[in-house]
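Supplementary Text 2. Reproducibility record for the structural model of the 125-residue chain.

All settings were left at their defaults, and a single model was retained for analysis rather than an ensemble. We include the record here because the model underlies the residue-level annotations in Supplementary Table 4.
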Amino acid sequence: DNVESARRAQRDYAAALALLSARASGWRAPVLTCSALEGCGLDEIWQRVVAHGEAARQSGELSTRRAQQQVRWMWSMLEEALLARLHAALQQDVGEVERKVRAGELTASAAARQLLESFDRETSR
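Retained model, structure tokens:
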């Protein structure tokens, strides 16, 4: 029966979540069941979603997490831009250096050092 299977799954997920540490805010994700077919449980799930959002806003957790996300995005964008510049500046050198690494003529660390030196020369002009 699907109801019993859902309850068993609910217990299993609740047990698994109990092994994980709670967030700093102390909030633990509830394990709820619902059925769109039967039309039950959806209101409770939505109420929990809204309540969690409100609690996250009131505690400052939401703004803290958003600020951390902005910093991660900044670094991600910077890394992408730097890699694009690096690839553009080293277009001529990269193929040969990669070939030497594959052939065992150059170690990975020596290759990285060589490419960084080439990049420094290229960008200091």
